[in-house]
Amino acid sequence: MAADLTVNGVPSPLSAKVVGSFAYLTIRDRLPTILTKVIDTIHRTKNTFFEEYGEEGIQAEKQTISLLSKLRNEVQTDKPLLALTDDLQDTETWNQYMQRHQGLQGDQGSVSWFKSAWLYVECYMYRRIQEAVWLNPPIRDFDVFNEGKTQSFFESQQAVMALCTHLEEINKSMEQLSRSQLLDNFNTLLLVSLWGNKCDLSISAGQENSQKTSPLDSLSSLQPFILVDDSNMVWSTLISAQRPGQSGVRVDIVLDNAGFELVSDLVLADFLVSSGLAREIHFHGKSFPWFVSDVTVKDFHWTIQQTMAANHKWMSKSGFQWKSYMKEGVWSYHDHPFWTQPHEFCDMAADASDLYTRLQGADLVLFKGDLNYRKLTGDRYWDYTVSFDTALRGFGPAPLCSLRTLKANIQVGLQPGQGEKLTSQDPDWMTNGKYAVIQFHSPKSEQ
Ligand SMILES: O=P(O)(O)OC[C@H]1O[C@](O)(CO)[C@@H](O)[C@@H]1O
């Protein structure tokens, strides 16, 4: 890996300043493409804006497009990042974060797209899209990525039906399952949720990316592509956290993408509850449209609603079950501004102590997806063999597990020589989404 400077043993963050790197190609090609698609979506929605808000809707469409075109130009010409000018609840935090980074840049001057930390500038782009929409009140609540998320859900229907049918079969025989059968079912649904992370729209710059076939059929052929598999530790954490007289533990799932991935997470959550392993599931989502396909509160409820409305017995039954879990408080949905900020998670205890405290109440936290992995590890040039514990740099509110398919040049916790071997066999292994990890950390093991 192109290791860079380290400060006190901590490597520097990935950045587009490494010409030709995945970060560089993302800033040069993928972000402008995403912005162009957003502009196109807003333009195509012009008539709806007019029908709903008259001339003000048209003005809002024009002004939003102009702000987004300006943003695209800033990216393409490597302009300095600008302070946010809206009045959202996180504006101040974002602007303070920028000042902090400007301080770190030292003599190199301001923070800019191709020179600064990739994680920071990529997150910043999604926040600027939100600013552009927010500054135009008639279309404030418009989700510029909604179309793609909806399409990806409908294109995954066959896979969703197969998965809900599988869930029904498990639930029917739940009472008779032995401990080892329970474990087998747990492992299967954990894997489905893991591979569900292949379906994200940001890596494909918004191109269709759904799950067309039953994910259950391909699990064994995908097994060799799992580079680190700590699923046994996830299981033993769930089992050892069970308390006499209390039915099940609390599991938090930090969600990633809407569409098939969200369904795969809901199915896993359903199994955890119906098996009695968990008594409560807390889902964590984004407070505004993020990285193209990430789950917002609207996507979450819409997905449950659509599942209920499906013309398929077991799919619709699952949807009704999920709705009642929500109603009874067995499942709950939470968002927090920290999830749509650029911080590495080792900053959470200091910068979002309320969220850190909330996560401390969980017996297990599952972090879905690549972006969460980047934030867990700080998106830095770590050596492949550095341990996951080291890369977390003290972050550990509760036992946690990352379920991630690889879509960025960062991977830790590999065996000596494993990364080099992969590079020689498949040079794009870190970014082509073919490989995955189930990586676990327990704060207890550090005591
Ligand atoms: O949906 P996921 O798994 O978090 O993946 C999103 C990933 O796609 C990318 O946008 C590709 O650049 C990464 O920045 C990001 O980590």
Automatic annotation (TrEMBL):
GO terms for molecular function: metal ion binding; phosphatase activity; protein carboxyl O-methyltransferase activity. Its EC number is 2.1.1.-, 3.1.3.-. GO terms for cellular component: nucleus. InterPro entries: ARMT1 (IPR039763), ARMT1-like_metal-bd (IPR002791). Its cofactor is Mn(2+); Ni(2+). Subfamily III proteins have a conserved RTxK motif about 40-50 residues from the C-terminus; the threonine may be replaced by serine or cysteine. This is Sugar phosphate phosphatase. It comes from Solea senegalensis (Senegalese sole).
